Automatic annotation (TrEMBL):
Entry superkingdom: Archaea
GO MF annotations in UniProt: 3-isopropylmalate dehydrogenase activity; isocitrate dehydrogenase (NAD+) activity; magnesium ion binding; NAD binding
Signal peptide: none
Gene3D superfamilies: Isopropylmalate Dehydrogenase
Biological process according to GO: coenzyme B biosynthetic process; isocitrate metabolic process; L-leucine biosynthetic process; tricarboxylic acid cycle
Keyword Metal-binding recorded: yes
Protein's name in the database: Methanogen homoisocitrate dehydrogenase
Keyword Oxidoreductase carried by entry: yes
Bilayer-spanning residue ranges: none
Keywords, alphabetical: Magnesium, Metal-binding, NAD, Oxidoreductase
Record-linked SUPFAM superfamilies: Isocitrate/Isopropylmalate dehydrogenase-like (SSF53659)
Cofactor(s) essential for the protein: Mg(2+)
Length: 338
C-alpha cells in the first residue's frame, strides 16, 4: 500500500524582536523552540527605536500585516522613541488583542516572603490612560482616559472565562471609582453586570491603592484580578516583584482573532548586548503562545523545565543572584526538556 502522509499543522509565527535585550531574549527563545520538535515557521518583522532610525516609523505597515496574517506573534521589547507613538501599544490595538494576561506564580528557591502565590492579572489593553490622546499647551496638558462599556464588559468577560479555565474561584475588580467616578464607575458597573453570568464565581472590588497594599500583605488571596490599562500595568510589575522580578514575568495579549506574546519587561538598555538578560520571561511567553495554539504538552514541558532550572539555583542570570549568561540558562532549560 502507498503510505498516506497526513500533513501536520504548521504554525506561522511572526517574530518581532524590537530593541535592546528584546533581541537577546528572542534569539534565546528561538534557539529553544528550534530544539523542540515543533512545526513553527518564523517570519520576521521590525518595530521600535532602531526601526524608526532605519525606516522613519516605529511600526511599519508590513509588520502590522505580518502580525495580522500569522497564527501568533512573538514580541521582544521596544525602547520608546521621543515624539513617536509606542509600537507595542499600537500593535496591540491594531491586532485588537484586548486582554493582556499576566500570570504571577511563586517559584521554589526564589527568595520571596510568600511561596504560594498563583494569580493572574487581566489588564484592559486598548483604552484607559494608554489612549495616547494627550493635548494642551505649555501651561496645561491633558491625557484622555477613555473607558467604554463595551471594552469594560469585554475585559470582564475575559477575566471570568479565564477564572473558569484556571479552575479558580474569585475575580477581583480593581479601580478608583471614589475619585474617577465616571470612568471607573463604568468599569465597575460593567464588571458586576458580567459577573451575573458567572454565579459560581465569587467577586470583590478594591481601590487600586488598597490593592497595591494587599498584593504585599496577602497576595495568596487573589485568583484573577481585572483592571484598566495603567492600573493593570503597574500592579503587574509590583506583582512580578513578589515572585522573582520581571525576568520571570511572561504575558499574552489575546483578542478574538490574534494572540501576541511578550515578556512584561522592556528593552533594558543598561544591560543590552551583555548576554546577561534573563530569557525566562520570553520563553514563558512562548509557552503561553503554545498553549494558545493548543500545544499544551510542550507548553507544560517548558514551564516544568524552567521551574526545575530556577529551583536548582545553580544556573541563573544576575537578576536572580547568579552569574550565568542568557544562553547558559537557555541551554539548561533545553536540557531539561529533551
Ligand atoms: N515587552 C514589553 C515592552 O517592550 N515594553 C516596553 C515599552 O512599553 N516601551 C515603550 C514603547 O514601546 O514606547
Amino acid at each position: 500500500y502507498e503510505q498516506i502522509v497526513v500533513s501536520e499543522i504548521m504554525y506561522d509565527i511572526a517574530v518581532i524582536s524590537g530593541d535592546g535585550i528584546g533581541r537577546e531574549v528572542m534569539s534565546a527563545c528561538e534557539y529553544l523552540l528550534d530544539k523542540l520538535d515543533l512545526k513553527l515557521s518564523f517570519k520576521y518583522g521590525e518595530a521600535g527605536f532602531d526601526c524608526f532610525n532605519k525606516n522613519g516609523t516605529t511600526l511599519p505597515e508590513e509588520t502590522i500585516k505580518l502580525a495580522n496574517d500569522s497564527d501568533a506573534v512573538l514580541f521582544g521589547a521596544s525602547t520608546s522613541t521621543p515624539g513617536q507613538p509606542s509600537p507595542i501599544i499600537n500593535l496591540r490595538k491594531e491586532l485588537n488583542v484586548y486582554a493582556n494576561i499576566r500570570p504571577i506564580k511563586s517559584y521554589k528557591g526564589i527568595n520571596s516572603i510568600h511561596d504560594d502565590i498563583d494569580f493572574v492579572i487581566v489588564r484592559e489593553n486598548t483604552e484607559g490612560l494608554y489612549s495616547q490622546a494627550e493635548y494642551g499647551d505649555e501651561n496645561k496638558v491633558i491625557a484622555e482616559r477613555i473607558i467604554t462599556r463595551r471594552a469594560s464588559e469585554r475585559i470582564s468577560k475575559a477575566a471570568f472565562n479565564l477564572c473558569v479555565k484556571r479552575g479558580q474561584s474569585k475575580v477581583t475588580c480593581v479601580h478608583k471609582s471614589n475619585v474617577l467616578k465616571k470612568t471607573d464607575g463604568v468599569f465597575k458597573e460593567s464588571f458586576y453586570k458580567i459577573a451575573k453570568e458567572y454565579p459560581q464565581i465569587k467577586t470583590e472590588d478594591f481601590y487600586v491603592d488598597a490593592t497595591a497594599m494587599y498584593l504585599i500583605t496577602q497576595p495568596q488571596n487573589f485568583d484573577v484580578i481585572v483592571s484598566s490599562n495603567l492600573f493593570g500595568d503597574i500592579l503587574s510589575d509590583e506583582s512580578a516583584g513578589l515572585v522573582g522580578g520581571l525576568g520571570l514575568a511572561p504575558s499574552g495579549n489575546i483578542g478574538d482573532h490574534n494572540g501576541l506574546f511578550e515578556p512584561v519587561h522592556g528593552s533594558a538598555p543598561d544591560i543590552a548586548g551583555k548576554n546577561i538578560a534573563n530569557p525566562c520571561s520570553m520563553i514563558l511567553s512562548a509557552s503561553m503562545m503554545l498553549d494558545y495554539l493548543g500545544e499544551w504538552e510542550i507548553s507544560n514541558d517548558i514551564k516544568g523545565a524552567i521551574e526545575k532550572v530556577i529551583s536548582d539555583c545553580k544556573i541563573r542570570t544576575p537578576d536572580l543572584g547568579g552569574d550565568s549568561s542568557t544562553m547558559e540558562v537557555t541551554k539548561a532549560i533545553v536540557k531539561e526538556i529533551i
